[in-house]
Amino acid sequence: MRFLPVGLAAGSLLAAMALATTASASASPAGKRQTVVTALGYNSTDWRYLQVPPAADEPLFADRSFDDSGWPAGQEGFGTVNGTCRWNNPVSVKTRWAVNTDLLVRHWVHIPRDAQQVRIQGTVDNDASVYLNGHLLQTVKSGNCKAGAIDVVVPSKYLDCCNLLAIRGHDYGLATYLNVAVTYVKTAPAA
Question: Could you say which residues form the signal peptide (predicted)?
Answer without folding.
Answer: 1-27
